[in-house]
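[User]
Protein folding is very new to me. Any chance you could explain this protein sequence and its structure tokens? I have pasted everything here:
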Amino acid sequence: MERLIQGARTAVRDCLGVKAGEQVVVITDAGTKEVGVSLWEQAKEAGAEAILVEIIPRRVHGEEPPPVVAELMRHADVVLAPTSKSLSHTKARREANASGTRIATLPSITADIAARTLDADYPGIARLSEQVASVLSGGKRAHLTTELGTDLIMDIEGRQGEPDTGLYTEPGAFGNLPAGEAYIAPVEGTSSGVVIIDGAIAGIGLLDEPVRLVVEKGYAVRIEGGAGARQLEEMLAPFALEGRNIAELGIGTNDRARLTGIILEDEKVLGTAHLALGNNASFGGKVTVGIHLDGILTKPTLEVDGKVIMREGVLIL
């Protein structure tokens, strides 16, 4: 319990820089309420006008919150969103950031994850994330491979690499907690090859067997494998072709994180890469669709313009 309190305190005071008198909205639901209450209590201790809002869990990652909650987000100084499904890739989040709200989303977080990862060396994580993001920003073509058979080419020219640092103290700042990744939106229609997801998939969890994606002209046109593949097909079915867009290439930079089946932590694990399907409008892409699903690849090799920046899960910078 003490570790959860300390993690919540770090998140509120250090990561978001909450000050006395600020309006802080904590959005939670039944699945994440223990963490939500802990964050709310720490916001109160920091002297903030702290508001705790419990919503009905969203159906999928990226589904909008109720309009009244979106309005609260726009008028708050700080929003912390420990919710079962991610609010990261929503219009509500983007509009709140545009109004100056500082936001951290904590999708599917558990008390165990919060206690283990929130009280981390975020200045160190920030430095590494910014280094990787800088390499991605300066690149034209990314080539991702794994020993299991991943071989994917993506154009990234003109797109901005984003560091998820964990330090969101400036107006309009946004990221996940726990933090620790660098990511970019590949240019739509350019990704091609094969992806073998062997770690975990958002909404499914840890995989018993790998899921194979065949990618053509920027879309996952075939999904092959066992139960995980069938589940992924079912989740994507309501969203037509745009749900299959290769939306994101990300690299984990958090040495406290480990694979648990909860994507919030999984995508931050140092030594992994992740690819997302669906929405990328929140970070420089052009696809707006009501789903964003990340898949984790272990021990990847990543080249940017022919230069290896990660070899079999080891960053080389």
